[in-house]
Amino acid sequence: MDAADALPGTPASRFARLVLAPNPGPMTLGGTNSYVLAAPGADGVVVVDPGPADDAHLAALAARPVELILITHRHPDHVEGLARLRELTGAPSRSADPEFASGADPLADGDVVEAAGLRIEALATPGHTADSVSFVLPGDGEHGAVLTGDTILGHGSTVVAHPDGSLGDYLASLERLAGFGQATALPAHGPAGAPVGELAAAYLAHRRARLEEVRAALARLGDGASLEAVTDAVYPDVEPAIRFAAEASMRAQLAYLRAVGAAG
Questions:
Q1: Catalytic residue among 77, 131, 164, 169
Q2: How many alpha carbons lie under 13 Å from residue 118 in its C-beta half-sphere?
Q3: Which of 3, 71, 94, 185 is least buried, going by the fewest C-beta atoms within 10 A?
Q4: Higher confidence at residue 263 or residue 59?
């Protein structure tokens, strides 16, 4: 058995294996994608997003020596299992949010991490949350790979919940990710493998179209329309279980439009 065969999960790219957490739901899709990263022949691994505090899931992530744990953002479905994984492995963790950095410095845009035989570049991609970070693996295949966290999902759209989330920041982050072209997208939810540039471009088109719908709704209802009324107009068929997410996204869209002067 070679080193790659001993890694948990399923191959997502040359250097990444996907370990799906058992936490499916309306907001997590099939569950949180934890990733185990390693260059061929490396003894240790890097874990990205431990996911929930599920013993079997964390044991799988700790099956090989863990050199470092990286966090894409602070939401519980990504970090709930972090403390336990640190206990199991003794590995340091790094995150843009200092709360989740232990034994190493918090991450800043442009930081380069050398671990498990890999070069990993931190790319600040705020918007979904203020602390959202993507991780670039420039040597992963012909075009490289990008772990996008919740900034870009394998399918569906991302919630941008004001005030921690910022639509202006999110659009700028999507523009930045679009520049990675054919690099493989490794999202934190949904299937991996699509070109990150194509996904980013589709996300940008979707967000811009949705903003036009919000502008049209405000033109009909008036700039003083309630959040609930605008949400009803723009998301008429939203399921009750995720109504809160639609309203959170609407808050972000209204804040963005007001900031750019389009909503009075």
A1: 77
A2: 31
A3: 3
A4: 59
Answer yes or no: 77 catalytic. Answer: yes
pTM equals 0.94
Higher pLDDT, 163 or 264: 163
DSSP string, 150-201: TTS-SSS-----TTTS-HHHHHHHHHHHHTTTTPEEEESSS---SBHHHHHH
In the predicted structure, residue 154 carries a pLDDT above the cut 90: yes
User: 143: which 2 tokens?
Assistant: 């075009």
106-113 contacts, C-beta under 8 A, 24 or more apart: 107/70, 107/133, 113/46, 113/68, 113/70
**Cα 134 to Cα 177: distance, rounded to the nearest angstrom:** 9
pLDDT confidence of 26, banded at 50, 70, 90?
confident
Q: Which of 162, 189, 202, 155 is nearest to 32 (CA)?
A: 189
The count of other CB atoms within 10 Å of the CB of residue 253 is: 23
Q: Shortest CA distance to 188 belongs to which of 15, 19, 1?
A: 19
The alpha carbon dihedral of 56, 151, 98, 249 has a sign of: negative
Average pLDDT over residues 213-240: 93
